[in-house]
Amino acid sequence: MTITGGDVHALLLGLANTLVLLGAAGVGALIFGSLATVARLSPIPLLRGAGFVYVQFFINVPLLVLLVLAVFALPETGLLMPLTPTVMLVLAMYQSAYVSESLRSGVNSVPNGQVEAARALGFSFTQMLRHVVLPQAARSVVQPLGNQLIALTMNTSLAAVVGIVELTARINQADQVHGQPLAYYTLGGLIYLAISLALGLTTGVIERKVAIKR
Amino acid sequence: MSSMTRKTKRSAALAAAVALTATLGLTACGSSDSKAGSDDALLAQAPVADASAIPAGSTMAKIKAKGQLFVATALDAPLISQQSIDDPTKVSGFDAELAKMLAKYIIGSAKVKWTPSASETREALLGNGTVDTVFSTYTITTDRAKVVDFAGPYFMSGLAVAVKADNNSIHSVSDLAGKKVIVQTGTPSTVEVPKRAQGASLIPFATTPEGVKALEQGRGDAYIQDVDLLASMSSVDHNFKVVGAPFTQEPYGIGLKHGDDAMKKFVNDWLTQIYKSGLWAKVYKSTIGSVGETPVPPTPVIGSVPGS
After folding, report:
1. Which of B120, B190, B210 lies closest to A173 in CB terms?
2. How far is A161 from chain B, CA to nearest CA, in Å?
3. HSE of B225, CA atoms in CB hemisphere, 13 A
4. What residues in A contact B203, CB-CB < 8 Å?
5. Which residues 138-167 of B are in CB contact (within 8 Å) with A?
6. Considering just the CA atoms, what is the radius of gyration of chain B in Å?
7. Is A162 helix (H, G, I), strand (E, B) or coil?
8. Which chain B residue shows the shortest CA-CA distance from A80?
9. Fewer Cβ atoms within 10 Å of its own Cβ: the N or the C terminal residue of chain A?
10. Which residue of A has its CA nearest to B188?
11. What are the chain A neighbours of B5 within 8 Å (beta carbons)?
């Protein structure tokens, strides 16, 4: 396998772009996902319904379809955003649906008695979520959330299809030049593997630190 | 030196629709035969090899014995190799018709088993014997010639620049320095543009219709694609235009298993025959040449490019 200095530079640029996508979409997914979870748990039926529809929509429409929709179809309605923010937003919203489901399963792991106790003590809905439910829910979903970030890492590669030059696109280009698909796609796979392993190990450490001993 | 690039043409349903519209338009303009009919007529004129050209034990004899030519091609390139939406066993276009004719030359009837190929998989498909030949806008390069054999070239193509119809500032690839340039994933454009336009930033899209759409939405200043595909798209879509002449030479070859000299000579003999009889020009006219005003190009000279 031939790797020139130019290739290394190009792949590093691609990796940087992948990490930027991952970072922005990851933070976005955690924020949107938390909001969707709160909406789904709220006492207001309309909000609960909206949360449900949001999560179901993004879980049941393939990411590639969403990306093509946002990049090629939305501009027809007059909404033309630059490529990178569009893709970040789509990735964040897509993954947030799964984040929300993970969070909700965490919330469901908090015994009902605790919610009743919080109410009995006069906590408002917000106070109850903030001081009783979410801290415990979050601890139990560290690893599932880590898995969502790993899934998001893989999903960033779809950005290559809609004009973003991230790691996968750079690997494609390097293969174009050298004609060694086996070597270059294996290298690409190993880089994604390294990112995922780093995420998985980090969340593993965090999980052990914050684990609730019940 | 010759470009070390791989070539593929991928197009989605939109392109299929475009090709269909083009075909319908032509039919309406007074062409008496339906497209499929004229292709079948061409196939009827295609030659069959003498028995003496197929010695026992040769690759050709094995293909004849199994009664089918195994061909790898892109199945989504309008006018080149497009799978029919109604009937998946029907594939039409320039590459596809030639593949059928080669099948007839060997077997006596145009029996082809199609295998979809991506630009990344063609060498592997030939190497492990999944297919006998690759007809897939396969650019002959010296790098590829180390792992596969090329008969031909059977067509000379090249990359060209497309811009929005109202753009009057870009006239050639050299005007693209520092500009945003839309290219197609998995095609030579991703390699050739950086070489010829300093500081151009690339925006890769997967299919030709997407590239054209992105150009029309103003996501880039120009779109670089194979001149024949651009010509066929621009004949029905007047929102963009092709400027300047093609700036690369992409000689297409027929991919064969590496080291099988008898098969390579056999296929080259067949190409020579259909070049001489004018059948090649007729196939061109009924496919790539069926849109736009392009005259039939001269037949390429077999073995004329490095790697062939």
Report:
1. B190
2. 6
3. 33
4. 83, 163, 165
5. 141, 143-144
6. 19
7. strand
8. B217
9. C
10. A176
11. 176-177
Kindly state whether B172 is in contact with chain A, defined as any CB-CB distance less than 8 angstroms: no
Question: Which chain B residues contact residue A172 at CB under 8 A?
Answer: 185-186, 190, 204
Instruction: Give Cα B293 to chain centroid, integer Å.
Output: 19
Cβ neighbours around A129 below 10 Å, total: 20
ipTM: 0.71
Got the DSSP string for chain B?
------------HHHHHHHHHHHHHHHHTT--S-HHHHHHHHHHH-----GGGS-TTSHHHHHHHHT-EEEEE-SEETTTEEE-SS-TT-EESHHHHHHHHHHHHHHSS--EEEEE--TTTHHHHHHTTS-SEE-SS-B--HHHHTTEEEEEEEEEE-EEEEEETT--S--SGGGGTTSEEEEETTSTHHHHHHHHSTTPEEEEESSHHHHHHHHHTTSSSEEEEEHHHHHHHHTT-TTEEEES---S-EEEEEEEETT-HHHHHHHHHHHHHHHHHTHHHHHHHHTGGGSSSPPPPPPPPTT-STT-
Cα separation, B72 vs B117, in Å, equals 6
Name the residue type at position A169. Answer: A
Give per-residue pLDDT as tens, B144-180.
888 899 998 999 888 999 999 999 999 989 899 999 9
pTM assigned to the model: 0.70
Return the closest-CA partner of residue B186 out of B247, B119, B249.
B119
Residue A210 CB partners (closer than 8 Å, separation 6+): A138, A139, A142
A147-179, pLDDT tens digit by residue? 999 999 999 999 998 889 999 989 988 887 777
